[in-house]
Design goal:
- The complex is a heterodimer of chains A (166) and B (158).
- Chain A is mainly alpha-helical.
- Helix content of chain A is 64%, strand content 0%.
- The termini of chain A are far apart.
- About 10% of the residues of chain A have low confidence.
- Chain B has two domains: 84 residues, Orthogonal Bundle (Rna Polymerase Sigma Factor, Chain: A), CATH 1.10.1740; 60 residues, Arc Repressor Mutant, subunit A (Orthogonal Bundle), CATH 1.10.10.
- In chain B, helix 2 packs antiparallel against helix 3 and helix 7 packs across helix 8.
- The mean pLDDT of chain B is 87.
- The chains are: A mainly alpha (166), B mainly alpha (158).
- At the A-B interface, helix 2, helix 4 and helix 5 of A face helix 1, helix 2, helix 3, helix 4 and helix 5 of B.
Chain lengths: 166, 158
Amino acid sequence: MKIQEYIASGIIESYALGLASAEEVAQIERLLPFHPQLRDALSDFEFQLELFALEHSGPPPPGVREKILDRLRELPAIRPVHRRGGQDGRKGKDSSPEYIPIEHSSTHIRVHKYWRPAFIAIFILAKILLACAIYYFIENQHAQKDIRQLQEKLIKTGGSTTEPGQ
Amino acid sequence: MEKTITKDILKSKLYSGEQPATELLYSRYGGMLFSYILQFVPERGEAEDLLVNIFSSLGTRLQEACDSNLSIYCWLQVEARKIILEYTHKQGNGDNGQGKAYYFLLLEEASPEHQWVFRELFLYGRKKEELAVQVDKDPAYIGGLLRECLLIIRKKLG
């Protein structure tokens, strides 16, 4: 394909004005990375369009800016970030990261819902172990006390049995 | 010409969030896009609502603008036209006086047939095939007329 003929076919204008068919869009997007002339022709036409729009622009209606910002505030803060599709010459030169870093102020974390029963089971198990620990601690205290009492009793009885033999 | 918004400028703004990026675009292109909308929808109240819809919906898709082969302004125009056509098709708007301003100023010297083709395709979003059936011609004939319109526009702009 002769690129000058392609440019002269009006494809650049059609593409920049949104009049190109899906096939034409796919074709020009495939060719753009390989043909600097095509990119230059597109940039030139885009510049002329913007200049024309600037010459024919008027002040936007008052209050519209606030309405737009209000609408944007109503939308959820986090949205999926579009990843780059096909790579072309322009995109290839671009080395900026694919993801937009999102600043967040929340102190909460979110985990998978499967963790919920696991957390409940761990909580119940911890309670059972705590109850067991308290029970056996008290049992141990009682046992210690019984041992001391028995030892005291043994000492007393031992003392009384040796007295008559003296 | 005032400084245009490049993709690098837009990306750097996007890091701060959608609102600052949209504010930047609006401050630069709000007036330009409003005049663009008026060629499709001459009633100012309707055009104002569309301007709000366009910026608030495109404000969440600015990464697409950065990834596009088109410049930021052309991307805005193309995406805005899709939203406008969706709206006018829902409203069932027919010929209500459009086609006398904006890009049509560049086609004043073109034949009525050329102007009709450009108006139907660009302003009303009709297909070449539909127009071909309407005038009992081949779609290539309509494509040829459109091509001539686009070359006139390019010549006038340049």
